[in-house]
Amino acid sequence: MLSDLTSLHTEALTALDAASDETALEALRIDYLGKKGKLTALSSGMKDVPPDIKKDVGAKLNEVRTAITDGITSRQLAFQAAKDAASVSGLDITLPGRPGQGTGSLHPLTQIRHLAISTLRRMGFALAEGPEIETEWHCFDALNTPADHPARNESDTFYLNDGRLLRTHTSSVQIRTMETVKQLPVRIIAPGAAYRRDEIDATHLSVFNQLEGLYVDKDVSLADLKGTLEYFFREIFGPKTAVRFRPHFFPFTEPSFEIDVKLEAKGKEDRWIEIAGCGMVDPAVFEAVGQTRKDTLFDPTEITGFAFGLGLDRLAMILHGITDIRHLIENDLRFLRQF
Amino acid sequence: MQVSLSWLQTHLDLSHYTTSQLSDLLTFAGIEVEGIEQKGVNTDLIVVGQIKDSIQHPDAEKLSVCQVDVGQGSDRQIVCGAKNFKVGDKVPVALPGAELPGGFQIKEGKLRGIASLGMMCSGRELGLTDEHSGLLILDTTAPIGKPFRELVEPDVLLDLEITPNRSDLLSHLGLARELAALTGLPLKGESHLGETDLKTRPATPAEIRLGAPEACPLYIARTIRGVKVAPSPEWLQNRLHSIGLRPINNIVDITNYILMEMGQPLHAFDLAKLTGGIVVRHATEAETLVTLDGQNCALLPDDLVIADQTKPLAIAGIMGGAESGVTDTTTDILLEVAYFQPSGIRRTSRRLSIHSDSSYRFERGVDPQQALGAADAATRLILAIAGGKAEDHAVVAGAAPTLVHSVELDETRASKLLGIPSFTADEGHAILEKLGLIKQSATPTTSLWQIPSYRLDLQRPVDLIEELARVIGLDRVPANFCAAFAATDTADRAYDHLMALRSALANRGFHEAQTLRLISTAQLSDTLGAIPAKGLDSAAVPVKNPLSEDHTHLRPSIVPGLIATAALNIRQGAAQLRFFEAGRVFLALPKNNTREEERLAILLSGPIAPSSWHAREPQPASLYDLLGVIENLVGPAVTIEPKPIENTPGFLLTSELRNGNRNLGWIAQLHPSRARDIDARHPVYIAELLPSALRQLQSGPAKFEDLPRFPAISRDIALECPQDLTHAQVLAALEKAKQPLLQKIDLFDQFRDPTGQKLPTDRKSLAYTLTYRAPDRTLETAEVDTAHQTLLTTLEKALPVTLRK
């Protein structure tokens, strides 16, 4: 019996080595370990084994069974490993990936607007909005623009047949907001479209995008304006950006300034680029708001404020080096895909 | 405004300032320098030379070889391409080593093999004139070898942007006054041209009648007889040339000179052409006038004219008439100096499109107090240059209006607004005094200031604070970092929501477009949605004064812009068209009302994926791809029920996207004929959504529902039905049955057989998986069988369907 087991052991190991695939392995398992298998047959002979060697034979039987079982398992694992390896053989990882629906994009203007809005929101400004079809009151009168100011002319501004107009700047949202707020401070930004009757060319669009800002409270000063806008432009253009304020004139702010930032251009001297207008809200604007409100919340002897406005199209052009503003409205995919 | 630095220097000595320092000084005083142009030359290496000999270049037909005497003993050989000279002419010669304006270096060299030891120059090469057709021929008296810069003084031309509030800066004297205040430099003696001891007498009504005193409250006339009209002397011609004006004759040149010197427009009439005295009046209906530049202007009663007893002579403050102007034969003149009200000048100038140096200044405001001084200065110049004899008195009609008043400065308020801790009242007062304001009285916290007559912009206390800010500059203002809490507004929520939709679409391979909000009448037919009974025009808001027929209406829909975007990209060869745009549209409502609302439009056409080695030609998108995108945008909690609408000629399948009673937008296929127009190779699908409606579907934070603890049992069914039975009808019938165990209905197939073999062609098959589940127990098979069977029986009764086995 012992010698039978020994020779079965040897025979099984040889057969294991010879098994060339999983089918052969399964056949081998049945041949040795199945109900009618060779080892099963031998183990059924255990009952005839004399008691004195029963223990030794039993141990040998177990040893052979374990050896065959382990052998089969390890061969199975080897076959599986080979199959797994084969499953990726010949796969060229340098081939391009599956494109799905393709890559989309947000318009560069949306991206710039979002950058500006996110920055200003961190600085404590909330969004406000107003209509693009405006009254002369909100677009001009209340903003201290003289009745015969050239901007009001039909050659410069789009009008509707009912006398209303398409707002020439987002500054009208200043008035809309101040006319309706319940309390101070007013601390708002208003991104939006504005219209001017300009022929479309490389630097002009008849419809363009601005962002307006307004802060009104007791004791708002030029120092607040300077701190806020310097901080904002350094967030946009980088922490070391030089920002300067040039005195200027706008009807609705006094004093008024234009803001330049100093920008690097490859291979050229740094240039000052005009980027925004700003100033302290003109008392006449507060008086106009007071006229509509019929209260004293915006009494110009009690409160002050600053306002600023910047062109988002221009900002996008400067940041991205876009040379022709018309790219922003033509929506050529070769353009849009670059952002 | 063009300003000559050398002209400016006649009023104050700016020699200690470099051009760039001066430019900074002006810029930070609110006078933007838009351009700086160097005129003439600054080197001794450009000298006067005389051409002694000129022969044809042996190898170049267009070149001559000249011998030029530049005062160095022997003549210099110079090869030259110009033709406008003759031997004996004197010309500017740039010697080797000289640098021309613009940076060009002159070197010795050879031209077509012939040595050339310098260059003879044109006016443009020296930055003097635009003349480039030949050499600049100099006066015969010019001394040979003399540096050219001693002959023609070099100059710097500044192009300044004067803001509309500072009309006092629209002259050399005005700028000099400002620079003197900013630098502390003294004005030279002769610069106080405003002062005069000219004798005056009131005009008789026959001499001057002010027929519109509100438009012209002051008119001064000075008669000068026996003048000799001739070209102006060189200095005067040079002054005018230096700022780009063309000299005409001495009289006209002098009026232009005084205009640019003092900012006071004047006009000279030929007295012989006048019939009787001057009348300043509004034009009569149908009156016409031919102006100096030859335009025949039809005038209106709103226009102010200077007339004599019989005819209009000039459009007041804007331009003189051709007939009464000074000519070579003029001997007696009437010199006009007046004050005209700005808004009237602005209206007429704009309506007639005549913009002159005179109207530019009157529109912005001229100091009426300087009129007499200007009349005097002009007369003196005329007498000195053109001779003649002036009447002793200037004749004055009306009076100069007072346009400035005393203004109070509140130092406490100024200090607060400026935000400069170290600012003192004394500093403020010093600045105002420097600017020519005179302190009339003061209290500890306020002071009252007399304003100079030329500072028409200083009317209110805040105007004085602006002056302080302008002069002090923002460098001294500390940067204060302040922030207040800002409550979220509905605008914030709307923005965030729309931004999330934008990002979702970009992540699904859509490109965001931005199209103009002004569209053409033709584009209106691309509007998505039902056509109003009165036609497409009635839904859109027209612009009264469009720039062109491409931009006549405010867009009532974003779709026209997206179709144009698709068309452009098809022309560029794009196959996959996936665009969206978010933005405002404008709707015309009854009674002239309008409504503005945000919309989100999506356009989808062509392959659903880019061509790649995975799929060279991916299948084209279908309406269901677009519907899927929209379902994805609104999320699984919102059901969208498309409801077809009628009368939408530009589109097929147009449907409202409804959620209960709420319209979320529209979806459609662009009509194939329109798609062919834009050369689309695949069907074009379009949707326009209403973000505000989508936002209203959001109902706060989602509520957690416990995960199912018991298994579900599902049954598949296939329903054979007529082609026109809809999925929505099946769903409605199934839901109507109210089977409590039915938890989910999933459509997994729609089958049609165009051959009619497996299914008649007028029938289709819809296959569903019905999922049954109870929340509190594991369902028994028999229980589900019963529920399922009941449901099917109900379905067969409710709809024209048969169950396929």
Report the sheet with the most strands of chain B, covering strand number, pairing sense and barrel closure.
Answer: 7 strands, mixed
- Per CATH, what is the topology of the largest domain in chain A? BirA Bifunctional Protein, domain 2
CATH class of the largest domain in chain A: Alpha Beta
Q: Spell out the CATH superfamily of the largest domain in chain B.
A: Bira Bifunctional Protein, Domain 2
Structure, described:
The complex is a heterodimer of chains A (339) and B (805). Chain A has 339 residues and is an alpha+beta fold. Chain A folds into two domains: 2-85, no CATH class; 108-336, Bira Bifunctional Protein, Domain 2 (BirA Bifunctional Protein, domain 2), CATH 3.30.930. In chain A, 43% of the residues lie in helices and 19% in strands. Chain A has helices at 2-18, 22-33, 38-44, 51-88, 108-122, 136-139, 172-180, 222-237, 283-293, 312-320, 327-330, 333-336, and strands spanning 126-127, 133-134, 165-166, 186-195, 207-217, 243-250, 253-263, 271-281, 304-311. A seven-stranded mixed sheet of chain A has the order 1-4-5-9-8-7-6, sandwiched between helices. A two-stranded antiparallel ribbon of chain A has the order 2-3. Chain B is of the alpha+beta class. Chain B folds into six domains: 2-40 and 156-191, Phenylalanyl-tRNA Synthetase, Chain B, domain 1, CATH 3.30.56; 46-153, OB fold (Dihydrolipoamide Acetyltransferase, E2P) (Beta Barrel); 200-398, Phenylalanyl-trna Synthetase, Chain B, domain 3 (Phenylalanyl-tRNA Synthetase, Chain B, domain 3, 3-Layer(bba) Sandwich), CATH 3.50.40.10; 407-476, Phenylalanyl-tRNA Synthetase, Chain B, domain 1 (2-Layer Sandwich), CATH 3.30.56; 490-697, 2-Layer Sandwich (BirA Bifunctional Protein, domain 2); 713-804, Ferrodoxin-fold anticodon-binding domain (Alpha-Beta Plaits). In chain B, 25% of the residues lie in helices and 26% in strands. Chain B contains 19 helices and 40 strands. Chain B has a seven-stranded mixed sheet with strand order 27-31-32-36-35-34-33, sandwiched between helices. In chain B, strands 11, 13, 14, 21, 22 and 23 form a six-stranded mixed sheet that branches. In chain B, helix 6 (250-262) runs antiparallel to helix 9 (371-386). The longest helix of chain B has 18 residues, at 490-507. The relative contact order of chain B is 0.06. The model of chain B has no long low-confidence stretch (mean pLDDT 92). The interface between A and B is large, with 85 and 91 residues.
